[in-house]
Amino acid sequence: MELRTLRYFVTVAEEAHFGRAAARLHMSQPPLSRAIKKLEAGVGAPLLLRSPAGVSLTPVGKVLLEEARGLLDHADRVRERVATAAGGARLDVGILGDSADPGASRLAEAFRTRHPGVELRVRDTDLTDPTCGLRSGRVDVALTRGPFDETGLSVRELRRDPVGVVLRADDPLAGAESLTRADLAERPWFRFPPGTDRLWQNYWSGGAEEGPVVRVVRECLHAVLWSGTVGLMPLAGEHDGRPAPPSGQAAPAAGGRRPFGHDLPPDLTVVPLTGMPPSRVLVAWNKGSTDPLVLSFVALATAAYRAPAAAAPPGGTG
User: Using 50, 70 and 90 to split pLDDT, how confident is the model at 314?
Assistant: First the structure.
């Protein structure tokens, strides 16, 4: 059995669907189906029960899934030990914007436990590069948000967060339970520097051509406070694992939502924005990378962000 084929099988088993597995593996479905059929022929028994709704594991498939995961984990450890012996293993991670996400806290703990001998270098990046330096080669893997041009990159969604509008507390719209983009049609927005990814610009600043230019989250907040602009901010959902603010501290946003990863100044508030696609928290890496540390980071990130909120420690990025 080839390790690559076993990875295909594990992915299909985890997604319970050939189409989703093929998308996750960044390949078309026919060669994936052929690889699984070849694996079944080699095993001598069906591994998956196929139906229009997806697939499920046969008893033989359940046994192979457990063994395959063990083999793949062992293969990754072998690669890591060899890399360490060859001169020390290191992983450069880019993180965008927020720095208080419980998913990232769980991921950091899981990575330290799984790879105690690996040097981990974390690079904070500003809002002008949602790939966090992947394209320039500054980092190996990134925790970021979409949308952006994913050409040449592999991307996996970790979570979706609702979005809110940041306003001055004395703004006539500040007391609304929710707002729509139409409510903000005549308002100025902050914008990003020329050359910023167009998909990113359109989502977070409404494609604004005029308004204060910002590079970091704090500049966005200053633009609202000092210039009366409006901007967007991800909101903490009901199941994000963040503790409620202690009594007497900053009030939550209108509608009971809290801005994700940032404490707003008392002169600002955030109102949920309806009709807006949620903000996607992503892990991204260079397409085709076979670096075992990168692949391990992606797998650990997937598990960490899917962990129950009750298990989340206080604090944490989004």
Answer: very low
- The residue with greater pLDDT, 238 or 307, is 307
pTM over 0.70: no
Residues 277 and 83: their CA atoms lie apart, in Å, by: 41
pLDDT bin (cut points 50, 70, 90) of residue 115 is confident
Tokens 């001598």 belong to residue:
44
Rg over CA atoms, the chain: 22
Q: What distance in Å separates the CA atoms of residue 298 and residue 282, rounded to the nearest whole number?
A: 10
Residue 68: φ, ψ to 5°: -65, -45
For residue range 245-283, list pLDDT tens digits in order.
333 333 344 444 555 455 678 889 999 999 989 999 999
Nearest Cα neighbor of 150 from 139, 134, 163 is: 134
For β-strands 141-145 and 268-272, DSSP reports them as: unpaired
The residues, any chain, with a CB within 8 Å of residue 14's CB and separated by 6 or more, are 21
